[in-house]
Amino acid sequence: TCKVCAAGQYCAEGSSAPLPCRAGSYSDATNLTSDSECTICPVGHACAAGSIKPSPCAAGSHAPTEGMDSCDLCSAGYYQVQTGQAECDQCQ
Fold first, then answer.
1. For residues 41 and 52, is the Cβ–Cβ distance under 8 A?
2. Least reliable range by pLDDT among 4-13, 49-58, 69-78, 81-90
């Protein structure tokens, strides 16, 4: 019997087990057959390996580029009060 390849992973042809979407990508679709079918994580979000949806960066952090697996904390002298942001603001 065939098994469904769950969201957040893909089942390569000939593979005996599902593989997670790589860190920096995600998928909420099932039955993917290749890592290239996983979606790149958007700016302002982070995607750990096997993610089914992007996680918005928390206040005090940011993700300036696509495909990040974790959010970066704001540097000294910078802040961010909102979630899901691409950059931090400079303190006045």
1. no
2. 4-13
* Cα(88)–Cα(64) distance, integer angstroms: 9
Q: What confidence tier does 4 reach under pLDDT thresholds 50, 70, 90? A: confident
Distances in Å between the alpha carbon of 55 and those of 2, 12, 15, 51, 75?
A: 31, 26, 29, 9, 21
Phi-psi group of 14: left, alpha or beta (phi > 0 → left; psi -120 to 50 → alpha; rest → beta): left
Read off the pTM.
Answer: 0.89
Distance between CA atoms of residues 92 and 85, nearest Å: 19
